[in-house]
What does this fold into?
Amino acid sequence: MQRIKFSLVVVLLPHLSLAQLSTRSSWIDLKDSDRTAAFAFAEDYKAFMAVAKTELTTVKEIVALAEKNGFEPLAENSAWRPGAKYYDVNRDRTICLIVAGKNKMRDGVRLIGSHIDSPRLDLKARPLYEREQHALFQTIYHGGIKKYQWVNVPLALMGRIDKTDGTTTWVNVGNKPGEPVFIIPDLAPHVDRELRSRSASDAIRGEELDPIVGSIPDDFGSVQEQVMRYLQTTYKMTRADFVSAELQLVPATPPVDVGFDRGLVGAFGQDDRLCSYVAARASFAVADPSFTTISFLVDNEESGSNNNTGANSDYLRGLMGRLLHLEMNGQGSEYHLRQIMPKTLVLSADVGHGVNPIFPIDEMTNTARLGYGVIIKRYGRGNDPNSEFIARFRRILEDAKIPWQTYTYKVDAGGGGTIGNFLSRENMEVLDCGVPLLSMHSTFDLCSKIDLWWLYRAFEAFYRQ
Ligand code: MN
Ligand code: MN
It folds into this structure.
């Protein structure tokens, strides 16, 4: 009798497990504990986003949080034992958080990859010039932007200046109350009739994205020399030092709640520091995982994942080799490294598009909505994860009762990339996931607090398997 009962349970279980493919907002019938946790999580997220506005400040901030959570820098002689927590920084612009698993790395790794760069304006190598008694910076934009969105927006200047004496000076102006900001001025509607005949995509051109950085001339009438003197005094820099500087203009606006109900977070750079922060938090939460977990937070996705700090570099593979070296006491080989890759499961995490109530332009049966949970991205055309891996990920979400949805681009209407391709090239199993945003790639993106929470729960469950 006992035996029959047992087998009945086994047979019935698959039918009892509720499919969580969302058909309505996950705010409805939400448990109080999830609601409270989601709002609390969003507070931490906003505090992070207020500081982590560039890849450089993101890495610094993640290092600080990692150390608070017991992570140590990975060294040549680090001890490899289950539960050991390390972080590794690649050139100040990419960071990995590693938690050693109970199983061997050759049994596979659980990796979440996301990017920490966002669309923004970079300064050119010789940025400072003067026109009509205003000092301005020449800029070149990073990532896909709608240029008209960047005018009249208070901008902060952030980054580093590296000098020939080997020193680095850090720059961060415009984020604190009371500090000056920089503005790309638009024309008044009274005078711009000529410009209004431009097409929308051309309303503001790339070479017009130059912010005002000064307006008071010196005794000889030069505004730019006055600005240069200020920079010399403040940052001990010369004009030539701009050549070896990485200076970015980012929106100065701090993250805030949006709506009477505070259901949304508005912030610059949620693509993709949202997933990056959430992946880091999941790494901090995971203790003694079965499989080694790695949060891979990487630079330059918005510009094609190039350079040695982007996903299209050998860094991650090199890191896996270094970890293997520690695990196998120096006995690891290329052969062992090749054993890791096919068994490794990767979530390529990136934010996506959510239905915009003013412009509901999507193919509505296959689109994503704010508040409906984690997105499983199905791009088609050879970019989809293998179906058996999708099934496995669905099982993780469903077991943890995490609402999820899917997204596929409207055919021939748009498209975008992620770091997924670079990870699947290593023969790892890769699935693209994320949460939906509104106003994506603008100076101020919106996410739903409840999606943020579900993504965290999903990452945690993925690492906990
Ligand atoms: Mn992205
Ligand atoms: Mn993007």
